[in-house]
Design brief:
CATH topology of the domain at 8-39 and 94-202: Rossmann fold
Function: Catalyzes the phosphorylation of the 3'-hydroxyl group of dephosphocoenzyme A to form coenzyme A.
Keywords: ATP-binding, Coenzyme A biosynthesis, Cytoplasm, Kinase, Nucleotide-binding, Transferase
Distance between the termini: 8 Å
Number of helices: 9
CATH class of the domain at 8-39 and 94-202: Alpha Beta
Low-confidence stretches: none
Strand content: 5-15%
InterPro entries: Depp_CoAkinase, P-loop_NTPase
Helix content: 55-70%
Number of strands: 7
Structural class: alpha/beta
CATH superfamily of the domain at 8-39 and 94-202: P-loop containing nucleotide triphosphate hydrolases
EC number: 2.7.1.24
Protein name: Dephospho-CoA kinase
Order of helices and strands: EHEHHEEHHEEHHHEH
């Protein structure tokens, strides 16, 4: 099997409250290399001067306070302004993808890991699925997801539903998934499912047909 970047690459995505970050933390505990796209984006938005200039052009000088990203201001704007949200994504996504592809190249060259996991909320929306060998969609029963987010973020049911409605329809994500990971049970059940996937990817990554 030939991998797209010389190393097996797997995306992990899912809607709010699905537990995709928990899945990635378990992969990490098992020894997998995990790239968190959200952390990478925050880092680039703070430290990449070229990207900072583009963000200031979209949001004005209020986007940064003392050189630091004004997260609350930007979050408030994009929550109510779809145009600004799309403009932000149009400059941030390419920068993040470029950084991840560079990391793939390094990992393939160093051969330090057998496969790499990328956690990202917008894998399909950004077209990044085309750069990955497999995409796992983590999902759960809607009521379970609502309850998780309400407890985690101390917010109302209506706020959670609003955030859910602003995301890609989960049914569409499920259709696009290579692997669907249902996360309705407890942490041990989830850990066992991730262990199975880890073992599966480990075997695929060691395929003798890799070029």
């Amino acid at each position: 099997m030939k991998f797209k970047h010389g190393i097996l690459t797997i995306g992990v995505t899912g809607g709010i409250g699905s537990g995709k970050t928990t899945v990635c933390k378990i992969f990490e505990e098992l020894g997998a290399k995990v790239i968190y796209a959200d952390e990478l984006a925050k880092n680039l938005m703070t430290n990449d001067e070229n990207l900072k200039r583009k963000i200031i052009k979209i949001f004005g000088n209020e986007a940064y306070i003392g050189g630091k990203l004004n997260r609350k201001f930007i979050a408030d704007v994009i929550f109510t302004d779809e145009k600004k949200k799309k403009e932000l994504e149009s400059v941030v996504h390419p920068a993040v993808i470029k950084e991840i592809l560079s990391e793939f190249k390094k990992l393939a060259k160093n051969k330090s890991v057998n496969f790499v996991i990328v956690e990202a909320a917008l894998i399909f929306e950004s077209g990044f699925d085309n750069e990955l060998d497999y995409v796992i969609v983590v999902d759960a029963d809607e009521e379970t997801k609502i309850k998780r987010v309400m407890e985690r973020d101390r917010c109302s049911r209506e706020e959670v539903l609003k955030r859910m409605r602003s995301q890609m329809d989960v049914r569409k994500k499920r259709e696009l998934a290579d692997i669907l990971l249902q996360n309705d049970g407890d942490i041990e059940e989830l850990r066992n499912k991730v262990k199975f996937l880890y073992s599966l990817f480990d075997k695929i990554s060691k395929s003798t047909e890799v070029n």
